[in-house]
Amino acid sequence: MKYSDKILNTPSSFIRNILKVTDAPDVISFAGGLPNPISFPIDELKQSINHAIDENGAKLFQYSTTEGYLPLRQYIADKYKTDFGLDFEPEDILITTGSQQALELISQVLLNKGEGVVIEEPGYLGAIQAFTLAEPVFYPVTLEEDGLNAEQLEETLSTNEHIKFIYTVPNFHNPTGITYSQEKREAIYEVLKKYDVALIEDDPYGELRWSGEKLPYIGAGRLENSVLLGSFSKIVTPGMRIGYIVTKNKELMGHINTAKQAMDLHTNIFSQMILHDYLASNDLKTHIGKIADLYQTQANTMLNAMAKYFPSTVNYTKPDGGMFIWVTLEEGTSALEFFNKAMEEKVAFVPGDPFYTNKTNVNTLRLNYTNSSTEMIEEGIKRLGKILYALSNEKQTV
Amino acid sequence: MKYSDKILNTPSSFIRNILKVTDAPDVISFAGGLPNPISFPIDELKQSINHAIDENGAKLFQYSTTEGYLPLRQYIADKYKTDFGLDFEPEDILITTGSQQALELISQVLLNKGEGVVIEEPGYLGAIQAFTLAEPVFYPVTLEEDGLNAEQLEETLSTNEHIKFIYTVPNFHNPTGITYSQEKREAIYEVLKKYDVALIEDDPYGELRWSGEKLPYIGAGRLENSVLLGSFSKIVTPGMRIGYIVTKNKELMGHINTAKQAMDLHTNIFSQMILHDYLASNDLKTHIGKIADLYQTQANTMLNAMAKYFPSTVNYTKPDGGMFIWVTLEEGTSALEFFNKAMEEKVAFVPGDPFYTNKTNVNTLRLNYTNSSTEMIEEGIKRLGKILYALSNEKQTV
């Protein structure tokens, strides 16, 4: 058998592959991007399951429409109105099989082989993987502490005509945990309004904020080719695989609908109706507030442990929300080598390599704090610190 | 915005588009391919939902593995052992978001732009749609009453080196309702074993048999590049979107796994665990027997009504199972014109056109009998017969 060039070029997910190793009960894993299971509203969902079946019967179990369950799309539209004053209608929203499918839909609809995608450097590896199936050329633009470098973005767009879209995670970015500043959002908007490109704002973590005020989107509601991606994976449950695409560009939405038909006909309607019942019967804001409190405690535990156990030469981000901390080791230290030593000590994380489209053997890495107890976080960081001191010339003081 | 060539060339599903029109309560629809909702085991599924949550808790709601829930894959492997004596292991099985996603996965993994796919003529329109996103060249091979024309298949394969796979629906074919004979299966196997191509056997309807004996697969268990597709949509519920791919080719399965990661990470684990609980707690054979009995009654009602109300110049298939009847009108009669007249009389079906990759304005059409009451079937066929008599020169005798 000969396989397609696109699949031979698509990286298998480093994270998904190591999850099997890191699943072992004696491994402390900061590798995945898993929500804390104690945050799942299981009792409320169970009530909604029984209620939704009693109310709707066979409709939960039959084929359904490609665009998704109308009351769920209405709920999402109303939520953007309340939270951001954005004027979306249900027809601007299509329900996807998780946000991951949204990435695949967009790249299939927009990209011919060899056309361009601007991606954050470092950027979300699931997006790199999804886009790669459409065989694009990646244009990495440096992600700074407050967002994409706007000058570099303009330079990239002005010198490469075949770029189709820019992919961003503006809030509590994966993998770095950073959030785009208000100024950076404006600067990027000013650049993008001059070009015929789509802006993808992928926002699965935005509501998980425990510090600071939420900011308006870069393009949503004002750029013609704005595409917003959302998900219930981090605020209700990832197991049901329910995400969504929002765009007011009707032609684009029509093509996305056709691609969705070809890919899986429609998203699981059983789960859509249960999720809608849950959202209609519970106060989501209160629930999200509890998750944010939990993650703040976990993040602070990790940051305090890093301050205590890591050499002073190690730098890292201090997120105001979300699920990740991004660590930069001393210049020349290999994150992959660090990973191998850490696994010997039964601690896992994701070395930076898969978050870049054109760099290897980097000195950066991603830590997740949401799926470990505070005791495990303290112990895991302690072990990592010990290895880091051994790798550096600094003398450990703790 | 400029869109990709592949999406501009992908047809939007005729069926999905007309479903909106045919959903009106006063329309008698033979258009969709929907199971009869009275066949959904709602009470048993409700029990399984509560039981699965009580047993597994947060696991139903967390991220899960790309290949799918192990006990469900084990159940599927055991079922093939029992039903066909086929020796599959869970590692040969990957759970997909419905069979539709399996079609998309296979075409992404195997096809470069311009490479070949052999498709039945007429063939399943959802497959044509999914494959089109990978920009192949289609090689239609005539589907006869007992399966693909084997000589034409051999001629096609021997003269076109870039063909990657053959797509078939061997049991109660969509759209025609025909089943491949034992002799045809052998003849096709003898052809395929000489070529380095994959054989896709898509079998969502095979268990819905009310007449005759089940037959062994063409390639499963004996062709190296055999791929079998299955689904729970027609025998339990389509709303949960659970299908699967079976292949013993490990390299192919590895690539499919990578593509699945890129497309949606994994199939809804909440639904997988509930479905598995249902399958482990109930006798599926008994349940399927009831569905087959129901569909036999509906099919016979339609066939008897067609014998009574249709002109004698109209030909049609007489299925031994499944969900569809294929109608061939008098030479020169346009199924699309017939469709427009039928919609005026509030009866819907699918004109043959979307089931062909290179023909339009054909004289064939698909009727579905599973989602209408026997009264509605009788009334709908009566109305269609009246139009057909008006379109033909024959005099109506009923």
UniProtKB/TrEMBL annotation, chains A, B:
One of its GO terms (biological process) is alpha-amino acid metabolic process. Keywords: Aminotransferase, Pyridoxal phosphate, Transferase. One of its GO terms (molecular function) is pyridoxal phosphate binding. Pfam families: Aminotran_1_2 (PF00155). This is PLP-dependent aminotransferase family protein. PANTHER family: AMINOTRANSFERASE, KYNURENINE_ALPHA-AMINOADIPATE AMINOTRANSFERASE, MITOCHONDRIAL. SUPFAM superfamilies: PLP-dependent transferases. Residues 49-384 form the Aminotransferase class I/classII large domain. Homodimer. It comes from the Bacteria. Belongs to the class-I pyridoxal-phosphate-dependent aminotransferase family. Its cofactor is pyridoxal 5'-phosphate.
